[in-house]
């Protein structure tokens, strides 16, 4: 597993736990509002952290950290993810996985093998809006997003990464995979959450009506506000955050079917 970043302490990302965050590279989405564009666009050119360095980190932090959050990019695209998580578990840590839910086979295997203690899955939009919010039209049409500056200061076209999770009839197949991952987590017996980053310019009330129906009966669901930063994938984008009042209105829609739903980060 190539580790492209390590945040040595977080009190927020693994609920109820003191943790560190490991970042993997590559993604099968091109969400135009993504805040980790370097990890998505040019992971092959980013410096990595060696496995031995990471093992030493785990040894030094025993007794100080409860768990490790594995995020990306999209971690489930990596075939060696199970071995990597096994090494974390063997070192005595809990594991939290962040995922977009497009690889239910990998998710099911990790759950069956007891390698996950918490999963945070992004639900990007309502089903009718999923392709647009995830940038799937660019993958489907084999086209490019506008030029933007990557991590080394060079301009690059935002081009798709080919993946087994994204085949012909991309949008339909991908949504089927996401739905299956939702069902796996609902029936998993472990702690999990679903979450949506809410972006003005991409989302509307209809998204949250659809999501509420889709996720009814889930353990936890959070709406979190979009935050602009220089790493946003679509350069010169039109996106912004909804107001607090608008976010609360979306929450009211969701809570009709998911009473425990909450806002995060306001």
Kindly state the percentage of residues in helix: 25-40%
- Largest sheet geometry: 8 strands, mixed
> Number of DSSP helices?
9
Q: Structural class from helices and strands?
A: alpha/beta
One letter per element, helices H and strands E, the order comes to: EEHHEHEHEHHEEHEHEHE
Q: Trace the largest sheet across and list its strands.
A: 1-2-3-4-5-8-9-10
Query: How many separate domains?
Result: 1
Q: Could you say which overall geometry the principal axes of the C-alpha atoms support? A: globular
Question: What is the averaged pLDDT score?
Answer: 88
Radius of gyration: 18 Å
Portion of residues in beta strands equals 15-25%
Beta strands, count: 10
Q: Detail the poorly predicted runs.
A: 142-168
CATH fold description:
TIM Barrel
Q: Architecture, according to CATH?
A: Alpha-Beta Barrel
The CATH superfamily is Aldolase class I
Distance between the termini: 35 Å
**CATH first level:** Alpha Beta
How is this structure best described in words?
α8 (about 205-215) runs parallel beside α9 (about 245-255). The chain is α/β, with parallel strands linked by helices. Helix content is about 30%, strand content about 20%. It has a single domain (about 5-265), classed as Alpha-Beta Barrel (TIM Barrel), CATH 3.20.20.70. The protein contains 9 helices and 10 strands.
Would you summarize the structure shown here?
This protein is of the alpha/beta class. Helices cover 31% and strands 20% of the residues.
Q: What key phrases describe this protein's structure?
A:
266 residues, alpha/beta, TIM Barrel, 8-stranded mixed β-sheet
